[in-house]
Amino acid sequence: MSENRRFPLHPVPGVGALIIDNGRILLIERGHEPLKGYWSLPGGAIETGEHLEDALRREVREETGLEVDILHMVEVFERIMPCESGKTEYHYILLDYICRPTGGTLQASDDAARAAWFTPDEIAGLKITLGTPRVIEKAFEWLRESIV
Question: What is the pLDDT of residue 4?
């Protein structure tokens, strides 16, 4: 993406993947700023000319090595992060999708320091990005109510 994500002129659109398999969700530990060291959903910025679902599959493949089926868009999340002076340092609009893995080999790469599977109970002890636990609960609720 050619536009600088730090102190952007406009919000940066992105996608996130709630990859759920056997009652566990896949999270990545962020390897770069913003939020380096926090656990989060795999995902990232949409490139110009790229469809949402193509961006999601690309980001998941780049960060985790996995291929996914996309089941349902579950959330639109806005992350605005001001710097110390109060100016907007980062502004993302994120579309989060429930996915299931269909292939590939799990391996953290790109800007992910680690990738690991967690049960919903294990998430409570993690250093995790704001809003992520709530959207994970929402995804598990949708799966319980749906026949997928």
Answer: 75
Provide the residue range defining the domain that includes 102.
12-145
Question: What is the distance between the alpha carbons of residues 64 and 60, in angstroms, rounded to a whole number?
Answer: 6
Sign of CA dihedral 135, 141, 146, 148: positive
Structure tokens at 86: 């109060």
More confident residue, 86 or 26: 26
Q: Encoding tokens for residue 80?
A: 């605005």
Residue with token string 């999601």? 56
Q: How many domains does the chain contain in total?
A: 1
- Confidence (pTM): 0.90
Q: Tokens for 17, please give them.
A: 């993947």
Does any domain span residue 5?
A: no
